[in-house]
Write a structure and sequence with these properties.
The protein is α+β, with helices and mostly antiparallel strands and 179 residues long. The chain has five helices and eleven strands. Residues 1-10 have low confidence and may be disordered.
């Protein structure tokens, strides 16, 4: 029997975000311009204006606007996949003369993203931003499968968002910690 849990499934590193979290992300940011690691199935829920889906490599393409980020799980070499996506996010902050990420909602499959995605740029650690610890474990899904018994808790990070709005919206989901 296959274990349909996000952390322990070897069938796929792709687990999609539930509709409620997508609605909350849109409420906080006023919409979603980009989901850089997505596909048409996931985007039916996220409703991003633009997505990067295979064969696109979202880590190699430029990001701009309001981003929704539910990075694929697993490792790439010795580093966490989530950490690589976090680094791309914080490296995409707008600079003079170029567009960039203005805000983002980031989903961490488990709270370890708060530690594995530390970055050496001031203000770029996930714990420097509002974090929601949902009361219940998030049931991610993929085509035909819902993880009914997720093995661990997840986190939601509000990168460069309005902190009060994030707390109000995501406070309905669980405990919000503001830095």
């Amino acid at each position: 029997m296959t274990d349909p849990s996000p952390q322990h499934s070897s069938e796929s590193v792709e687990w999609y975000t539930p509709r409620l979290i997508a609605l909350m992300a849109r409420a906080v940011m006023g919409g979603i311009d980009l989901d850089p690691c997505s596909n048409a199935t996931a985007n039916a829920v996220i409703e991003a204006t633009r997505i990067f889906a295979p064969p696109d490599d979202g880590l190699e393409l430029p990001w701009a606007g309001r981003v929704f980020l539910n990075p694929p799980g697993g490792k790439q070499g010795a580093s966490s996949s989530a950490a690589r996506w976090w680094r791309k996010l914080v490296g995409s902050y707008p600079r003079a003369g170029s567009a960039g990420v203005t805000s983002a909602i980031v989903i961490g499959f488990n709270p370890s993203i708060l530690f594995t995605a530390q970055y050496d740029v001031e203000g770029a650690s996930p714990t420097d931003w509002p974090v929601c610890y949902p009361r219940r474990r998030i049931s991610f899904w993929r085509e035909g499968v819902e993880a009914k018994n997720p093995p661990h808790h997840s986190v939601v990070i509000g990168y460069r968002v309005d902190r009060d709005k994030f707390a109000k919206v995501f406070g309905k989901l669980g405990k919000v910690v503001l830095p």
